[in-house]
Design brief:
The complex is a heterodimer.
Chain A (H helix, E strand, L loop, with lengths): L2 H25 L5 H19 L4 H8 L7 H6 L3 E4 L12 E8 L2 E8 L5 H6 L7 H16 L4 E7 L6 H5 L2 H12 L6 E10 H5 L6 E5 L3 E3 L3 H9 L5 H7 L4 H6 L5 E3 L10 H19 L4 H13 L7
Helix pairs in contact in A: 1-2, 6-8, 10-11
Chain B lengths: L4 H8 L10 E3 L6 E3 H6 L15 H8 L4 E4 L17 H12 L5 E8 L2 E8 L10 H17 L3 E7 L7 H20 L4 E9 L1 H4 L8 E5 L9 H8 L10 H7 L4 E3 L1 H14 L12 H4 L20
Helix pairs in contact in B: 1-3, 5-6
Classes of the chains: A alpha/beta, B alpha/beta.
Chain lengths: 316, 310
C-alpha cells in the first residue's frame, strides 16, 4: 500500500466531515461556524504535519500516488495533439505517447511516458516501462522534430525501462543509447519535465535536454529505490533506506545542478489540484521555450554539451 | 614514447612471484591452471576456452605496440553524496584500489595498435564492478574529446555493471555526458570501435557501448541492459543459458561481430584500417604526418615495434 495514500486517509475523512457540516449549516438555521473553524484548523495542522517536511521515501510514494497526474493528463491539457504511433519497425509501445502538439499556441513535438490509471490501462501501457520500440519511437519523433524545426517537449514518469525477455532480445541498451545519441545533436530546443518517477536510464532517455524541470515531489534516481536496495543489500525490501541515501528529491537535484527548475506543488501533492499543477508545468515549459527558441542551433548544441559536460567534472 | 613502468613490468613478469598465487581454477570447467600459462594464453582457459575477465593493464599490454600514454589518470573519485551502506564509500574505493592496483574503473590513453595510432579506453570489472561514476564518465569524455582534437580513431573496451549507485544521479548523468562526447566525436568524422567484454550491462550498455561505428564483442561475454536476476524475478522463470550472451545478441542483430580473444587483435587492426580514408583529414595511419602536436607537444606516432606478445 502506498504510504502517502495511507497517511492522507484521515485527512480525506476530515475533509468530508467539514463538507458535510458546511452543507448542513447552509440548510439549517444553526450556527456551526465555530465547529467548522475548529475542524478546519485541525485539518490544516494535520496537513502541515504530513506534508510539511516529507522524507525521501514519502516523496517516492507521492511520486507513485495512484491519483497523481500522468503523462497523458499533460498531453490532454495541450491546446492540440495529433498522436503519431509506432517505431516503424516492430510495434507501437503504449508506455510512450507522442506526436505533434500545440502548447500555448506554439507548435511542438510532445512525448510522454504514461503508467496507466486503471488496471486495464496499466497493462496496456506496461506500467509505464518502455520497451526498445518505445525508445525507437522517441528517436523517430525527435528526428522528425529536428527536420521540421519544432521544439521537443517531454514528460518523464517511469520506474525504469522494461526488464523483460523481449526487451533484451531487441536490445534495450542499444535503444536507450540511440535515443540519447539523437537528443545529443538535434538543433531544436528540448525541454524535459520530471512529473513523477524518473527511474534510471529509462527516464534519462527522454531527459537529455536543454532545460530539465522537475515537480517538487517528483523523484529522479540512478536506480529505483527497490533496485538500488537489491544491488546494495540483496534485499529490495530495504527500499526506504536506499531512498534516503540516493539524493533523489527535487531539492537535492537542484543543488547538484542536474535539474534547472523546481515547480511547486500544492500542500498534499499534485493530485490535490491536477489542473493547477499541469497548468504551472505547461507555463514553465512555455517560458523555457521562449528563451531557448531564440538561440541559434549551433549555440544550442554547444550549451547542451556544456550543461552536461560540467556534471561530475574536475573542472567545474 | 616511453613505455610506462607498469606496462614494462606486466610484460616482463606477468605473474606475481608469490607461489600460492600461481595457480588458479577455471570457473567454467574446474581445471587447475598455472597462471603463467594462463597469462601466456591471453587469459583464456586452454582446456575449455573460457575467457577470464582481464585486468585493464593486461588488456592494454596484450593490445598495444610498445607505447601507452595514460590520460585522465590524475582524476580520482570523491564522495559527492557522503555515501554509506555496509561500509562508507571511501572505504570501498580504498579497498578496490588496493585489490586492483587501479585508481578507477577505466584506464584511458594514447597508444598504437599494429602501428595505427589510437585513443584507447579499457574498463576493468575489478574496480567497483566496472561501474560508471563521475571519474569513469570524465575519463571517457576526455578520451573522446582528445581523440577528436588529434583526429585519432577511438577504441573502447567495455566491462561494467552499469551506473554506480554510490554516486547517485551524478553517476547517471555520465551517460548523458559521454553520449554528447561520442556524438561530437563521430559527427566530426571520428571513427569509433567498441569492444564489449564480459560483462557489459546497465548504463554503459545504454550509452557509449552501443554508440560505436562498429560494435564488437568478445566470445561468450554477458551483454544486456537489465540484470539477469531482475528479469528472472520479473517473469518468475529461469532464463535459458545463452540469454544475454554475445552470441545471442549477434543472432538478434545487435552486434557487428563476436570474436574469440585470440582473434581480437588482428580483427581490430583490420577494422581500424578501414577508417583510414574516412571523412576526417586523417583517421589512423595518416595522423602522425598531418596532425599538429597538441599543447603538450605529444603526438601518438606508430611505434617501431609492430610485434605483440599475444
Amino acid at each position: 500500500m502506498n504510504a502517502v495514500v495511507e497517511r492522507e486517509k484521515g485527512l480525506i475523512e476530515l475533509e468530508e466531515r467539514i463538507a458535510a457540516l458546511k452543507a448542513h449549516a447552509a440548510q439549517q438555521p444553526v450556527d456551526l461556524t465555530a465547529e467548522i473553524a475548529a475542524l478546519e484548523s485541525k485539518y490544516a495542522q494535520i496537513q502541515r504535519e504530513i506534508f510539511g517536511s516529507m522524507t525521501p521515501w514519502q516523496r517516492v510514494n507521492m511520486a507513485r500516488h495512484p491519483k497523481r497526474p500522468l503523462g497523458s493528463d499533460y498531453i490532454a491539457a495541450l491546446d492540440q495533439f495529433d498522436e503519431l504511433h509506432g517505431d516503424r519497425h516492430f510495434r507501437d509501445d503504449h508506455a510512450i505517447v507522442g506526436g505533434f502538439a500545440k502548447l500555448r499556441g506554439r507548435r511542438v513535438v510532445a512525448i510522454a511516458q504514461d503508467k496507466g490509471r486503471d488496471t486495464k490501462e496499466k497493462v496496456l501501457r506496461n506500467f509505464g516501462m518502455p520497451s526498445p520500440e518505445g525508445y525507437r519511437k522517441v528517436l523517430r519523433l525527435v528526428r522528425l522534430a529536428d527536420h521540421l524545426n519544432l521544439p521537443v517537449v517531454t514528460f518523464v514518469d517511469t520506474s525504469g525501462a522494461d526488464p523483460g525477455i523481449g526487451s533484451e532480445e531487441r536490445a534495450q541498451g542499444e535503444a536507450i543509447a540511440q535515443s540519447l545519441y539523437e537528443l545529443a545533436a538535434v538543433g531544436v530546443p528540448i525541454v524535459a519535465t520530471i512529473i513523477g518517477e524518473g527511474g534510471s536510464g529509462g527516464a534519462l532517455a527522454l531527459a537529455l535536454a536543454d532545460r530539465v524541470l522537475m515537480l517538487e515531489h517528483a523523484v529522479y534516481s540512478v536506480a529505483s529505490p527497490e533496485g538500488a536496495a537489491a544491488i546494495l543489500w540483496g534485499d529490495a525490501g530495504r527500499a526506504e533506506e536506499a531512498a534516503s541515501r540516493l539524493k533523489l528529491t527535487s531539492g537535492d537535484l537542484l543543488q547538484f545542478g542536474i535539474v534547472d527548475q523546481v515547480i511547486a506543488e500544492p500542500l498534499g501533492g499534485a493530485h490535490r489540484d491536477p489542473a493547477g499543477v499541469i497548468g504551472a508545468v505547461l507555463s514553465a515549459v512555455d517560458d523555457a521555450l521562449t528563451t531557448l527558441t531564440a538561440v541559434p542551433p549551433d549555440q544550442l548544441r554547444d550549451r547542451r554539451y556544456a550543461k552536461f559536460r560540467r556534471i561530475g567534472s574536475a573542472v567545474p | 614514447m616511453p613505455m610506462p613502468e607498469w606496462l614494462r613490468l606486466r610484460r616482463a613478469e606477468p605473474v606475481p612471484a608469490d607461489q600460492a598465487a600461481q595457480w588458479t581454477k577455471c570457473p567454467k570447467c574446474g581445471s587447475m591452471i598455472y597462471r603463467p600459462d594462463l597469462a601466456a594464453n591471453a587469459w583464456v582457459c586452454s582446456t575449455c576456452g573460457h575467457h577470464f575477465r582481464m585486468h585493464a593493464f593486461d588488456r592494454i599490454s596484450m593490445l598495444v605496440d610498445a607505447d601507452f600514454v595514460e590520460i585522465g589518470g590524475e582524476l580520482l573519485p570523491s564522495d559527492p553524496l557522503g555515501w554509506t551502506d555496509k561500509v562508507p564509500y571511501p572505504q570501498k574505493l580504498a579497498r578496490d584500489r588496493e585489490k586492483s592496483k587501479l585508481t578507477e574503473g577505466v584506464v584511458c590513453g594514447f597508444a598504437s595498435i599494429g602501428g595505427q595510432p589510437v585513443a584507447l579506453g579499457v574498463m576493468d570489472f575489478n574496480f567497483r564492478g566496472g561501474t560508471m561514476g563521475t571519474v569513469v564518465g570524465e575519463r571517457i569524455t576526455q578520451l573522446f574529446e582528445r581523440a577528436r582534437e588529434r583526429h585519432l580513431p577511438c577504441v573502447v573496451f567495455t566491462a561494467s555493471g552499469g551506473a554506480r549507485m554510490e554516486e547517485g544521479m551524478l553517476a547517471l548523468m555520465q551517460m548523458a555526458k559521454t553520449t554528447l562526447a561520442v556524438r561530437r566525436f563521430r559527427d566530426e568524422g571520428g571513427y569509433y570501435i567498441s569492444v564489449l567484454t564480459d560483462p557489459t550491462t546497465g548504463g554503459v550498455s545504454a550509452s557509449f557501448a552501443f554508440q560505436a561505428d562498429v560494435i564488437m564483442a568478445e566470445a561468450r561475454a554477458a551483454i544486456g541492459f537489465a540484470g539477469r536476476r531482475v528479469i528472472e524475478q520479473t517473469i518468475r522463470q529461469k532464463l535459458p543459458d545463452n540469454f544475454q550472451t554475445a552470441e545471442f545478441l549477434l543472432e538478434k542483430g545487435a552486434l557487428d561481430m563476436v570474436v574469440e580473444r585470440s582473434a581480437l587483435k588482428p580483427a581490430l587492426i583490420r577494422l581500424l584500417d578501414y577508417g583510414v580514408g574516412g571523412q576526417r583529414p586523417s583517421n589512423g595511419r595518416l595522423a602522425a604526418s598531418s596532425v599538429a602536436p597538441t599543447e603538450s607537444g605529444e603526438v601518438a606516432v606508430p611505434s617501431e615495434s609492430q610485434g605483440s606478445r599475444t
